[in-house]
Amino acid sequence: MPAAVNNTRQGGPEPGVQRLLKSLDQISSRGTGKEKDLMFLRGMFQSQDLQALLQVHHKVSSQEHLDLKPMARNSFQIAAQVYDELRTHPLTSEVRQLLDLLLSPHFKALLTAQDKVACQDYVPQLPSIPHEVDEDENRAVKIVRIMRKNDPLGATIRLNEETGMIYVARVMMGGAADRSGSIHVGDEVHEVNGINVRGRDPDDVVQILAAAQGPITLKLVPSNVDSKIYRESRVRMRAHFNYDPFKDTLIPCREAGLPFKKGDILHIVDQTDLNWWQARREGDKNMRAGLIPGKQLQERKEAMRRTVGTLDGGLYRERENKGIRSSTMNGSLDGRKARKTKKIMYQSENSSDFDNAEIITYEEVEKYYPESGRYRPIVLIGPPGAGRNELKRRLITSNPEHFSATIPHTSRSKKPSEVDGKEYYFVSRTEMDRRIAERRFVEYGEYKGNLYGTSIESITSALNAGKVCVLTPHPQALKMLRSAELKPYVIFIKPPSIERLRDTRLVPTTKGNTDNGMIQKTFSDEELHEMILNASKIEENYSHFFDKTIVNDELTTVFTELCAAVYRIEHEPQWVPISWVR
Ligand SMILES: Nc1ncnc2c1ncn2[C@@H]1O[C@H](COP(=O)(O)OP(=O)(O)OP(=O)(O)O)[C@@H](O)[C@H]1O
Question: For the domain 362-580, what is the CATH code?
Fold first, then answer.
């Protein structure tokens, strides 16, 4: 190979390339004004690399007619014989040199490789497909014997209404049929374990297969369609809906379906059929892919479901954002009276496009490997009172060197006791308005005539300082937060059942009252119900952004769970939207 590459053609480029160069000159003389492009093309056509590549191409194509055969298929064995023979000779320096050469690992590996290639040993040995002539129809048939344990065949069949024949409709990647390499889409099924199935109902065939124990022998008429070898795609998708093939009336074959849950990561191995993808659940040991609805089909199904729902008395209503949008300064979802300690309710810019009834089915993801010294912000989302700030406070107190909150900006004037950049960054109202217009706040709001907001800069400066930034924003802020730059990890802090809320929140415990000097808030029963309702609204609207959900039941246990999650985020790879890593 190096000989070919270095041996560039004497006397200039190939005739074909010369013609191309000439035509470039002609174009150039016409003055098209594309001199830069022409220069690039000229450079490329004249490059030594291209000349060398063309020579290699010519050389290889000129050899194609030669039926090259290996000199030997057992060169390793021959070398061993030579070695034994040589050892019986007097040890001259040449003999010694040859013996050393024959013994060297590289030489042995070279001979082994040549033998393997000569024997084509690199191709897995598949049983040869016996072709015979079907006496009735004079057509070539193949007999395929599939060894399997308890796993299904991994193929679907369909009836061709015109011919009345059953044919293979789909071969599931990684299944027994696919592994055999001998069953292809379009093959006509004539016999199953010696039983003639021509003209029979596909369900009968399914029954025969289900009843069969051990190996299965199929008599197939190969399809005329070229059976391409498909490579598995590397696409991974996070599912944003639950899927049960047995409840899906559209799926072509329920048994071939792959059930999954919202949040599961799916390896989409084949998207040839836009409507029905083949997929495996990430981490699943079963290598056989299953059918799942493709993105477009699922979106259509969901749109239909919503339309029908709306006509059907609003069963699947539009998202109820009114409560959220009109929330008052306490950040409550329904305008609940502000708690004294709360001062700020933030709003996110232009959130309507974000909150409207988007149809989110799958999201393409890729693995993100944690970078040392740069941590993903932890974003705690939840209804007011669920415990986000309590957990944030505990995290920061547990290791203030490692965790940090952001410092908000405000247009209110600084009190004498306050230090700029400590509790707040104090800026003028005009300046604050300008920054809001420049979309530099992930959320902002007005309280008693003053603006307050969390800026993107305040988050990045915590990240750049090597800290884990902990945030408890309104869910609407996720729109701005979820970016390749910030890569937030979103945890939904979900209230437990009403009974557990009553147990843990209604009665202020002595411990709660004095714990860390904070006054524990008590809730009325109505407020607890509201909390659950608001949680379900947030879940309905934003769950596709959650990386994890933690039910805030027993505080100590929950905090341990949170710490464990935070540790994993810092040390283990996680799935993130593909645009964050590419
Ligand atoms: N698991 C829990 N068990 C008992 N009390 C809890 C628990 N989690 C939080 N609390 C208490 O509930 C009250 C509300 O919690 P917190 O202020 O953290 O809520 P929040 O989600 O931040 O909502 P808000 O923004 O309205 O403050 C606090 O007094 C807190 O100590």
Answer: 3.40.50.300
